[in-house]
Design goal:
The chain is mainly α. The protein has helices at about 1-10, 20-35, 40-50, 50-60; strands spanning about 80-85, 100-105. It has a domain at about 1-10 and about 20-70. The chain has a two-stranded antiparallel ribbon. It is globular. The N and C termini lie far apart (about 40 Å).
């Protein structure tokens, strides 16, 4: 879904709308994230992974590519509920590294069963 939104915002082949810059698209998506229209954790991962920049380098016109200050969007009001980390010792043969995402969950204080 995030990819589809980003692609639609950055599309240069739509004569009925003006082309948006990369930073304008990220601003719009950040607002969508704050308003819970897109998952904030996935949006943050989208930015941290650099997918937005890779896509821009491949498909956007040079005049659409501008600086995006990721510090405006990362770790804003609340910390992310995921952490992307390398897991030592969990490699398959020929695999350089392994990653895992961990989520922090609230621990229930009481049992819901009677």
């Amino acid at each position: 879904m995030i990819r589809d939104i980003f692609e639609a915002l950055t599309a240069r082949d739509r004569p009925y709308k003006a082309r948006k810059t990369l930073s304008e698209c990220i601003d719009i998506m950040a607002r969508m994230s704050r308003e819970q229209h897109i998952d904030p954790d996935l949006f943050e991962l989208f930015l941290v992974s650099g997918v937005h920049q890779q896509y821009a380098d491949l498909f956007l016109l040079p005049e659409q590519i501008d600086e995006v200050d990721l510090t405006r969007y990362l770790g804003a009001a609340s910390p992310p509920s995921w952490r992307h980390e390398s897991v030592a010792g969990s490699r398959a043969p020929g695999q350089r590294f392994s990653t895992r995402s961990t989520r922090r969950h609230a621990v229930p204080t009481g049992s819901s069963r009677s």
